[in-house]
Amino acid sequence: MRTPLSVVIxxxxxxxxxxxxxxxxxxxxxxxxxxxxxxxxxxxGLETRLIPDAGYRLHTVDMIPFDPPTRLPPPPFQxxxxxxxxxxxxxxxxxxxxxxxxxxxxxxxxxxGAQVAVGMGGYPSAPVIVGARMAxxxxxxxxxxxxxxxxxxxxxxxxxxxxxxxxxxRAHLPGGTRAFTTGMPIAAALADLDRDxxxxxxRRELGVPDGARxx
Length: 215
Hints:
single chain; globular; alpha/beta; 7 helices; 38% helix; two-stranded antiparallel sheet; 9 strands
């Protein structure tokens, strides 16, 4: 008997990470009826409201704002691209919390019988990928911003599977040359809209001249 698909998605902090994650979850459910999709987030982000309201289970983990270690410039004439790893107080706290939340995510992945973990960005993205690495599960990150955030830049080092919404994001990600440009996951209700007609109607309603540039 074939095992039903089970996916755990890490997304949180802002709608820019959560809504693409929800669009992906909806698409998976349409493609694989009966699939089990759940999310990982924190107790203080927008995910605490948006994800349950969309009908998905939200697991919460401990996390602090992401501040990974950096590398110092190399000493002169050493011939190395980076100097020693610098672990300041904030980065040390972050790494400790990340290992703790990664272990929490590993337990969640096992409880859900997950076959794959997905990081959509925001603070929860990194521990989900760390948890998948601990559990020996395949994982994927999706970057929806032109310039990736810290969590996904870190997580990109832990998975060979990277998807981006914009080609230019590749240059900012470790291993970005192997990334696939998939575009932005959006809700089916938005994908089916006649955008050209709505754009014209909105301009007329707001009194914006044709050809005027909007920011």
